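Objective 1b: paired records.
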Amino acid sequence: MNERGTGRKKALRRNRIADYTLRIDYMNQDKCCSVILVDFLHEKIAVVNKTTDPLLKAFGMKVNPDWEDFRGFLEERCIPRERYQIKQVLKDIGVDGYDPLAILEKTQGRTGEDEMWLKFSYYRAAEETIDVSDKI
């Protein structure tokens, strides 16, 4: 692992991250390639890449993805808004409206273009502290 990746991981381990309430593992078959920690309240994310291959990283070559990058990532792995009969498709998968996160939870973010998928883990905010070193 390069120095930058190691430093970022160590920085995350030092921080107790009670504000991050969602962990998304970006998986390639059964291997976790990136871990995305999501803080909805402050609209921020933290990413730990577990691979050096940019094609397998959740945000590719982007070193410090922000909230807009995260929203784009969700949209990219989601059913297109413009899809023919989108309302029926959403109803079939059990989602009330076009909410990329809800759709991805139902579909695991799978697409026909690659073998990547998403694993979701939710945590309670502020009631308990998540220590990243125990989770990554």
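Objective 1b, second protein:
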Amino acid sequence: MAVATHPRVWFERRRTRRDADYWILHGFERRYPERVTELTSRREREACARSLRNVRRELSGRWVSAVPLRRAALRPHQSLLEALELRLLGGEGVSGLGMLAVHDLLGDADSCLYSPVEDVESELRDVLAKLEVD
């Protein structure tokens, strides 16, 4: 049975995560091992991989939703989306920075999935490269 968390505690955790994410994005991943562990957990990786799989399904035309994907621009890059999905599901470790990049790809309205960008391929390859552990 889940225990209800007081809103103040929830907001404090959210703020702490957001602060850690900021510093991870700026190269201080080693200073936030708890957040990196949370970001790179099997559960988080599977959730992101599932979201990428759903994007690919929608691009293939077999599954349609109200998500405002840039279908025409993304269809030629389905293999990169699949590579991202497989990388997340693989047994190799991933970086916290890479997981934040995946989160931005899936959840940011300005990502190449939803907004016009000049080079979709390079953005997807950049996310894939960021997943590599140094």
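The chain has a mean pLDDT of 92. Residues 41-130 form one domain.
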